[in-house]
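writing this on my phone so excuse typos. first protein, seq and then structure
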Amino acid sequence: MAIKLRGRPLYRLMKVVSGLSFCMYGFDAGVVGGMLLHKPFQDAMGNPTGVWIYPMIVASYDLAAFVTSIVIASFTMKIGRRGTIIMGNTVAVFGAVLQASSYSVAQMIVGRLLTGFAIGSISSAVPIYLSECGSKAHDRGPANCINAMFLMGGVPIAYWIDYGFVHWYAQASWRIPVILQCCFAIPAGLTMFFLPDTPRWYYARNKIEKGDAALSQLYDEEVDSAAVQNTKRSIMAAIEIELEANTGIPWSQFLTLGIVDTTKIKVVRRLVICFCLPLLGEWMGISLLAYFAPVILSGIGTSAGTVSVISGVLCTCMFLGTVPLYWTIEKFGRRSTMLYSAMVSSVLYVVFIVLVAVGGKGAQWASVVMLFLIVPVLSYGWQANKFLYGSEVAPLEYRHLGGAFFSSGEWLMVFITVFASPIGLDTCGWPFWFFILAGNVCAVVFVWLFCPETAGKTLEQVDYLFIGKGFAGLQRDRGPVVSEFDEKLDHVPVEVQSNI
């Protein structure tokens, strides 16, 4: 039984369902971090004293998401974007129940591992699902911006719920917030069950009739309409191009980070971008601030209640930073937004490090102000853009691998920063922040050298951005690919079949 919605109402529902999945992702990132210092939670965990135990409780979720991102690459092309999202939300419910019923560190970690599996699946599939279902090239940017708003909105929701419950000293005070993530996973998973998969996935799997039906539903046009047939031709053209260029992936060239790439449409380079971009985005410190804001702010010499309020406001700023991008993403583009925000955040981190190193009451409060500047800059420039760009840059045949590379890069660095950062801050003090600064500087260099602009292009036209003669084989402008693509398109019949 399928939902009868068509056209823009259908795509809006897809955005809401995808957003609920990502809101759970953000909620789970924030909810446990806000309970780490809560006495009933510590009692339930047996009041562990090892410096690594609480970081491992938090980071086990990220480690599972990283491993999942690699494992699911072997079968997500078979079950589709939709099937992967349904699977992720289903497993998330079991993980939430296990966490909320925990009475030991071991059980809590197992629950976190299950939830990490769920989030690894969701984070690799949702951006691709939204991008491939957009009926217009300019749909992808705003849709992924809304998704990022849901993601970053989940973090302050979790923190403010935690803030309300930490004044209640009972076991339910931390178990109720943890189980609330089911309020996102259950409706998202159930609704997704009645939605179609993406037309591009149907065509890539040679399910032509279902692809036609999905396109017709998304365009709210008959199957034989010009809009549906033109889009079908462009997808089939991209499939044919990728089949012609497909001579296998030279995996050894990944060691060069894709600078050496002998594939015609630069598959290696594009998968490297899918891996490195989210890795750099997390290295810039956004997850560190989301998970451990109370711990970082506890050094300013004020009460625990004040620290909790400041942490909640800081996480709210993470959400607010993503909002303006909805109106500017197509105007300013992906490349420029990521590049200039990374430059600004690098400068802000330098000032922050100086203030923390100087110390003293005034400098400490000034460093807090710098965090309130850094957070919205990173949210605006990277939170939506990295998901959007990763879903756009991978070729159709390897888009499931692109999603897996993207998710594994993100969760690998989240695990490193979330597990190592509390230990690093405890043992190294303020010099640890140079590690985060290095991530911001590397992000500037990487985007400048390797990331062409994808705004204004269909997903099929993005292939031609990677056969130019610029550095690393990139074209960074927005114009010349269209005519070449259309010339190829004219020679591709609608009934081309795919053997992918």
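second protein below, same order as before
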Amino acid sequence: MSSGWGTQDASGSGWGSSQQPPTDSFGTAAMADALPNANGRPQAEGSSANNVTGGQDGDPNSGGSAAEGGVADGWAPSQKYDYEQFTDARAGGFDGSKRVYHWDGEEGDLGPEFPELEEELFGPADKRDLPTGIDFSSMAPVELEQEGPIQIHPIMRFTEAGLHPAMAKNVELSQYRLPTPIQKYCLPAITRGHDVIGIAQTGSGKTAAYLIPILNKLMGKAKKLAAPRPNPATYRPGIDPPARAEPLVCIVVPTRELAIQIFLEARKFCYRSMLRPCVIYGGGPIRDQIDQLSKGCDILIASPGRLIDFMDRPQNLTLRRLKFMVIDEADEMLHDDWKEDFDKILGGGEQEEGNIQYLLFSATFPKRVRELAMTHLATEHVRFRVGRAGRANENIVQTIVQTDPSMKRQAMLDLLNSMPPARTLIFVNNKRTADELDDFLFNRGLPCTSLHADRTQLEREDAMRAFRKGTMPIMIATGVSARGVDVRNVCHVINFDLPSLDHGGIEEYTHRIGRTGRIGNRGLATSFYTERDEPLAPVLVRTLLETKQKVPEFLEQYLPEGDELENLQFPSEQDEGIGGGDSGGGWGGDAGGDAGNAWGGGETSSAVGDTGNAWGGGGDTTAAGSGGWETGGASTGGGGW
């Protein structure tokens, strides 16, 4: 196999003189739970086997014909996927149409247990494990600052949060053991009714930090607070008179994928509550979304464009009952061309009582976000900052690899074949590169899929579903997935293209690598560096220094010198109050961690054996060993991944 690793190496190994090939020095043996068992033929809820050719979720072992090209040892042959079988009328194929809990009895505001749905939401009782393996040895010392006259006393355990028994059970079923730093403060603050600004790095547990206390406050109060609505179990769209959606909670997010992700989490926390979650976003069939809203909606998750569309349809949606407004990933949405629309959204439309509790979450806190806070949040709101705004996750080991642009695809193949299998997210800068790299890896037998703006909404959701379930454990994506999306056990993020200074720069880099190392998990980020990335080099080096990562030899020319290095100061928001200057960019965290322990710790399953048995463990874990990507069962091969 030819080298793809630049021209520094004189030995012919393919690695530059300052580089070392990835080995188990990263502790990859501890990634035992990164892939679920993919022996079956999973299908989307609400769909039938006749709707697809092959597996509903991109199962490489079902349907289609094998892709041409060489297949690496241990890999199941890649399969072509027939999207022509999909139609927009097939509502069951969209995640927004997944089942939610409902009960047609009159025994109060809490329904009985529903074992079948409970298993769908939380997984089989004997196979449930942590959605995020929390490494509290790393998370505990994370600095959290709170500002303003109101000081919140944090909780240390969920049992201290005063949760309704049904919510406490849902938290337990979701396998949340201990709250993360942002959760320790947000739960009591939101419960007391304070407006909140939460500034936290990606992967800090922000979604649960607001979903749990909001839904807890509404738990057992659905019949008192919610609008009248038909019985979802017997409602017939187009025949029975529809209800107008009057949500109590509105959560606004920048991307479709994040909207779906939060909806799937809301389904869990709403279990038995009689509160009905719905999601609306651009690209999905608006007729299906109208049908979902017509059954009633208490918790609305929405992308801003589609929310504005529905606010202009008062027969379908009104915000007059709204009690909570959440803006998640605010810094991604608050641009000049959105100001008027956001003023309309945050004004609550025709909200009657004017008592909306505002919760604003962001990875950074630039001027436009501060101005929004000044306009809409209460004067005595509480503000939390976990670490420093825009920081890189301290649990991520960052590796920069120099290569020639013409050899990047081969370098990617070499990298993937040099390490044990793991759920891997690859970022590129444009749609064409995503398609070309997808074809290149697919035709060489790697189980990959891709995500970008030219995909239909059904294709996007199917790709995300396959990636989450592990049937396609390599995802190639443009920046559309860089913010907010949390897929369990993404062990490796690869920047096939580094972001340019004109398209996000170091802040975009920070958001991308934040897809791994989520909520205390250890992660690995590898970035290909070419001569075209030279403008990014100085700030990239500063990020590596701040996170105590090794600066490769070819970037040492950008190191500060002498006193400048000894007295190196990183941007701080100590003096950045409301109305202050613009945020400084995104820099890394304070601690990088040792590469030899990059994957250890937390609640993740431990490895069994050495590098040759890197995929130990039981339950849903697929034993792949050193033999390669084998999504159909255990591999005993000796080469490849």
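The first strand starts at residue 144 and ends at 147. thats all i got for now
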